[in-house]
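In the previous lecture we treated proteins in isolation. Real proteins rarely work alone, and many bind small molecules. This record shows how such a complex is specified: first the sequence, then the SMILES for zinc ion.
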Amino acid sequence: MNAQSKPPIVRKVRKDRRVQGPTDDTYRSRGKLPEPTVCPTCGAVYHDGRWTWAERPAGAHEETCPACHRTHDRYPAGFVTVSGPFFETHREEIVSLARNEESAAKAEHPLRRIMAIEEHPDRLVITTTDTHLPRGIGEALSRAYHGTLDLKYAEDQRLVRVAWAR
Ligand SMILES: [Zn+2]
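The predicted 3D structure, ligand included, written as tokens:
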């Protein structure tokens, strides 16, 4: 058998697809959504290729936005862990600062949201629906209170873990 007699390999088929859970692609808008599309859960409107807070157009198609989809599946794209002695005596201020940061981000980018804030005795874990908000929250905490900030991105940039401590 020589090289010329072999047909070119045009495509590899993966047969060992064992991962059945949601993948990050689950939460990306697959191809083009019809426009306009409205998320029935949060009311975000997909228009000109992005999710916005535009008013609901008449006759809009309905499809759950990626942020609501992740929230429903409890599948965060980002984590912010907050800890330290200063945190323990300033929990309320820190939570409200994180919420303010979310409000500012979400006003401009509907998919940037806090999914949940888990309260633990020694730390908070804030989960988010996107990978930008955790950094925004971490940087806001650093600006306000200094402390130490650590950012870790997954290799494919689809998951971010931020840790702030003081
Ligand atoms: Zn939504």
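Summary for your notes: The pocket of zinc ion is lined by residues 39, 41-42, 44, 64-65, 67-68 (CB under 6 Å). The beta strands are 37-38, 45-47, 50-52, 61-62, 78-83, 114-119, 123-128, 148-153, 160-165.
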